[in-house]
Design brief:
This protein has 70 residues and is an alpha+beta fold. Helix content is 46%, strand content 16%. It contains three helices and three strands. The longest helix has 14 residues. The protein is globular, with a radius of gyration of 14 Å.
């Protein structure tokens, strides 16, 4: 398998840590995970979110921000 992903250097965050970084509630993070807006890995009943996914969501939100404010 040539395109196997190496997970040894991937940092994962808990839902609580993601909520703190994004300054939203944990429920908002769970909604983003369940809607597919934010990728996550499920371990039992817990979710872990790759740090790169959080950065990607924040960058896309920043790009959508309107340029002209009153």
């Amino acid at each position: 398998m040539a395109d196997e992903t190496n997970f040894s250097n991937v940092s994962f965050l808990t839902v609580s840590e993601v909520a703190d970084v994004m300054r939203v509630s944990k429920m908002t993070v769970y909604r983003m995970i369940h809607s597919g807006e934010m990728p996550a890995v499920q371990f039992g009943r817990s979710y872990r979110v790759p740090e790169s996914a959080v950065e990607s969501v924040l960058q896309s939100a920043q790009q959508e921000k309107p340029t002209g404010t009153a």
